[in-house]
Amino acid sequence: MTNPTIVSRDFSSLSASARFLLLAKGYTNIPFARRVAELLEYPKPYVPDFQKKNMTLAAAAFHFESRYLSVDQLLKDLPVKNILELSSGYSFRSLDFARREGVHYIDTDLPEIISTKRKFAARLEEEGAGVKGTLELLPLNVLDQKSFREIAGHFPQGELAVVNEGLLTYLNKEEQEKVCSTIHGVLRERGGWWITGDIYLRNKQPKLQFQYPDEMKKFYERHGTESNSFVSFEEAARFFRGMGFVLDREASVRRSEVSALKYFMRSVTLWQLLRFMWVGTLQATWRLKAV
Asked: Which of 104, 105, 115, 212 could form an SS bridge with 134, CB 3.0 to 4.6 Å?
């Protein structure tokens, strides 16, 4: 039986995270990121200052662009025409794919974000981002299994790719299991893959000594992102196996592919760079298959 306190939990504060991510992604070559950041900040101008050294912002830009590219890497070589993205924030991977490929792409997040994204999408399409495939922007609480399945039912027949980056770390263990169970059930029925960029390791980020704005510090503390992460990649693999998934492929993005690398290297001191090397890998992106 579904726990009603899970489905009804208030996730409205997640929009603060989505906004921070977008402003960092504006320093990258992620499709539409800078333009959407301009729209979000209007009438205040949004102009990335690459000359201003900000280790936290530069590291965030590099990390989030790497994660974005890792998801794209695992998605682009799949023979699927149906793509469902969960908790996408202000990312417009959906529009990028729908304008280039003949896919049916459903982009979901909380109602507040989807309402804003629809306005942005309309503006981007007016500016020339025409859609070749089918694009839907729909509100969804990923813990609401009924709504999840209803949205999955919008797709025509064929295998499905479920995509997310920046979701599981905001959910506790029970909620993570709920999402896994729903995705597993849908993929078992339709066939397909789950690409998740949410394989984060616990106690890595604090060692990097990021200087987040007070709003973001409170946000991460409120949602317990550290405790929701995995102790190790081995623990993550055991968790997904226990939920009925096997690892199909892990993404591997070359640093040279990341446009924010130059800004990052200009913004860190030698000691900060050595600290990053000492901390090591904190995140992975996996493509999973339901068994």
From this structure: 104
Tally of CA atoms within 13 A in the half-sphere of 268 that contains its CB: 25
CATH number, domain at 65? 3.40.50.150
Cα radius of gyration (the chain): 18
Element (H, E) at 77: none
Question: DSSP code of 1?
Answer: -
Where does 77-144 have alpha helices with state H? 93-100, 111-126
212-232 pLDDT, tens digit each:
666 666 666 666 678 899 999
> How many domains is the chain partitioned into structurally?
1
With 0-12 CB in 10 A as exposed, 13-18 as middle and 19+ as buried, what is 131? middle
- d(CA 142, CA 138) in angstroms, rounded, equals 12
- State which residues form the domain around 267: 4-290
